[in-house]
Amino acid sequence: MRMRNKYKKPTTFPCNAGSRCSTSTVVWSLVGFLLMLHLFSLFSHKDRAGGQMQLHKSHQPLFRELVEVEEENIQIPPPKGKRSPRAAKRRPKRTTTLIDEFLDENSQLRHVFFPNMKTAIDPMKDNGNDSFYYYPGRIWLDTDGAPIQAHGGGMLYDETSRTYYWYGEYKDGPTYHAHKKGAARVDIIGVGCYSSKDLWTWRNEGIVLAAEEIDETHDLYKLNVLERPKVVYNEKTGKYVMWMHIDDCNYTKASIGVAISDYPTGPFNYLYSKQPHTFDSRDMTIFKDDDGVAYLVYSSEDNSELHIGPLTSDYLDVTNVYRRVLVGQHREAPALFKHEGTYYMVTSGCTGWAPNEALVHAAELIMGPWETMGNPCIGGNKVSRLTTFFSQSTNVIPLPGLPGSYIFMADRWNPADLRDSRYIWLPLIVGGPADRPLDYNFGFPLWSRVSIYWHKKWRLPPR
Ligand SMILES: *[C@@H]1O[C@H](CO)[C@@H](O)[C@H](O)[C@H]1NC(C)=O
Ligand SMILES: *[C@@H]1O[C@H](CO)[C@@H](O)[C@H](O)[C@H]1NC(C)=O
């Protein structure tokens, strides 16, 4: 855009010199034409850089802080003392990696990944210049001063009350293994709900869907599994509908569960569970499109692929329509969002509680085909980029009034003590050219890059 302005200058050169004017006009026109030709070829050459430039231009100065690339070097200390069994099993050799350190409960770097209570974010304290800053990985306190318990979370924005509701797994119980080969777990306590107007100060609204303590046949019986609750509001029925992953402790039930409430703060009434479209269903999310149609997205066929299908108009069930997407790619933890008519999805690999590389996928139609665009992570260090900053995607929140800007919500799971898992919230920006050739579209990247920028501390632009 700037280039075109430059070119305009010579053509509007003032002309007052009578007969000489025509010569000078011709000369200037010629110069202008050649300049335009040159700039045009320059512009088409630098098309890739052009996208980046446009992003920075449209986002300045509001977004400068969000897209700053922050490198972070973490020194691995020499081995000292005992390794925890988990770390020792993973890598019996002497050299350790950052991932080993992350998984080692006795690591000297523990405080880097799981900073202690002293550094907790407490929005009720007078934070001075630190107000509204996110510190990814630090303990985050609610308005009562207790650590927020909303893991594998989802976000509902209620437009009438301009309030955000954050739902997630309330995991404030002991971590244990149900049997030798079982994954680390916490008994179901329920779905926690927190409300906020500023996305920083969170009020505990209580457990809006509670575990069943006695009836062993109930889906919500405490020894079962409830993960990744997501709530959507249905305009037609005026109800809040919660979808979640329901499983037994061995993850063989592989179902979705549905609950309903008249209020965002519950209590939610649990309705039923099922295998959607008769398939196994584990990590899942719900995406509500602009036209009011909501979709269930779930990992299926033993997590080897994702399935996407619309819900019924009351959001209480799936229809019989579904598509298999990202077949054979083994992705989980899907988080969907839409930007300028294109659907984007962040997913993780399947490595249990251990972190792995995030990938972004894009599609023109929500039912696919979906294209894999690559790793969105920018900044941090090589290992943290390959581990989604030691976390796993769970949701992406659009920021009203800031087009192209989102908050990426992820969980930094702590398998040694799951209740102490941390929240990694980072700015996610759509813009600039994609950096991986695609399968369709003759390999040409059709969509903008999705970038998640690492920050030790950051905050939203003041509104
Ligand atoms: C806040 O920032 C201002 C300007 O940078 C500085 O003068 C002031 O000392 C800071 N206050 C605190 C409490 O850090
Ligand atoms: C889970 O697996 C273990 C070991 O295979 C078994 O003993 C237990 O009965 C299983 N539990 C359920 C609820 O299927």
UniProtKB/TrEMBL annotation:
<dbReference type="InterPro" id="IPR006710">
    <property type="entry name" value="Glyco_hydro_43"/>
</dbReference>
<keyword id="KW-0378">Hydrolase</keyword>
<comment type="similarity">
    <text>Belongs to the glycosyl hydrolase 43 family.</text>
</comment>
<dbReference type="Pfam" id="PF04616">
    <property type="entry name" value="Glyco_hydro_43"/>
</dbReference>
<keyword id="KW-0812">Transmembrane</keyword>
<keyword id="KW-1133">Transmembrane helix</keyword>
<keyword id="KW-0472">Membrane</keyword>
<dbReference type="InterPro" id="IPR023296">
    <property type="entry name" value="Glyco_hydro_beta-prop_sf"/>
</dbReference>
<dbReference type="GO" id="GO:0005975">
    <property type="term" value="P:carbohydrate metabolic process"/>
</dbReference>
<feature type="region of interest" description="Disordered">
    <location>
        <begin position="74"/>
        <end position="94"/>
    </location>
</feature>
<keyword id="KW-0326">Glycosidase</keyword>
<protein>
    <recommendedName>
        <fullName>Glycosyl hydrolase family 32 N-terminal domain-containing protein</fullName>
    </recommendedName>
</protein>
<feature type="transmembrane region" description="Helical">
    <location>
        <begin position="21"/>
        <end position="43"/>
    </location>
</feature>
<feature type="compositionally biased region" description="Basic residues">
    <location>
        <begin position="80"/>
        <end position="94"/>
    </location>
</feature>
<dbReference type="GO" id="GO:0004553">
    <property type="term" value="F:hydrolase activity, hydrolyzing O-glycosyl compounds"/>
</dbReference>
